[in-house]
TrEMBL record:
Signal peptide: none annotated. Residues 157-225 form the WYL domain. Residues 253-331 form the WCX domain. This is WYL domain-containing protein. It holds the Pfam family WYL.
Amino acid sequence: MAAASSQNTIARQWQLLKLLPSRAPGLEARVLTQQLRDAGFSVSKRTVERDLQDLSLLFPLQCNDKSMPFGWYWMAGADLDIPGISVAEALSLTLVEGQIRQLLPASLLSSLAARFGLAKNKLQALESSVAGARWPDKVASVSADMQLLAPKIDSDILRQVQQALLDKKQLEVSYHALHQNAVKQYRLNPLALVQRGQVSYLIASAEPYTDPLRFAIHRFKQVEITDTAAVTPADFNLQRYLASGAMEFSEGETITLEFSAKPVLANLLQETPLSADMVCVKLDNGDYHISASVHKGWQLNLWLMSQSSFLTVLAPQELRDKIKQQLTEALANY
């Protein structure tokens, strides 16, 4: 218990030093107390005043005692480079670490390794005394889809892909084309990295073409960075590419989808609509007629099949016929 108390005192005082301004009139103890509380430390104004007196014996701190309230600040010329991180920063690093590992170049990730370790150590040291330090144990982000394990990615291949993207160099690759069950050779122009669920994709054009394609990184069998500069299409923009529905495995075509839905599905869709223009109208039989602008493609088809017990596609007719055929084929398996 004494060790935990000592760790909390050190962390609190370190944070207090970081809060102090570099010039007069400084900050009074009342304001500093509130800022420490905002950072997750349960502390009284009297404790902060005592901390300031103690720290002024070790650090070049100045108290503006010419008028009330007294303000504290660093003396002119003092070194304000205080290492360490706040509880909020430690929380942020801990919560995002798993999300960004496959999106950051290895060189940048290695430079953050010490920061990630410091964040974990700080939260562990303060978990018994600072409520905010226990936050990672109380929150989680889960996928709304079927929980699948992440594919295994060769760390060296990932590093080379990231480096080629960073350096704007072409890649010579051997790639396992899943649907063709064959390994193919490509020369790629890396354009972007996208994390979709558990799978990381390299968005790239394959010579001699310029259309951006998706390549699942775990399907690369071999990659080599070339000395040739990558060619980026003048009209390529990652945000526009995503908005086109490309990561929904769409060719970019937008359709007006119409279907009837059971109340249980309609209620869910009214909470989380398919699109900004979705319209939901209750029918006389208790079901709902829903229309929405959506991207035509594999992701839409997969969703419609997964909800086939709760909806009936009405339009477009081509999509209605396709779903009907797939349901007939699925029924034949049973």
